[in-house]
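seq:
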Amino acid sequence: MRRLTGHRVVVGVGASSGAPADEVYEVIESVLAEAGLAAERVAALATVAAKADEPGIVEAARRLGGVPVLAYDAAVLAAIAVPSPSPAALATVGTPSVAEAAALAAAPGGELLVRKRKSTPRAERPPTATAALASRPRG
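struct:
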């Protein structure tokens, strides 16, 4: 894996309604750790417009120092080719990818550094958040 020094990154985030902020933040931390990056490298979170006001995502952005939450229309995200499309995301929000596509949408000309990762399931319920990491080109 390439080490990025000085690059800013964007974390694409997907979340179920009511996803706990701790779970959203933990999956963000996991993709950053996988890339060997500190939270200070995050320029923004990105998601589908329908989830931009989701409390868990908003709180995660606050914990990251108040980075902006960039929102994209589902049709915009659906047009972006990704390695890990999800029928569940398509059925729920109208795009086969939220985390990967939003990360790439917010980093035009950049690259996907960490593919979609799911949060850790909690007490008898499935994961409620996903995250992916993309680099923004310098400039």
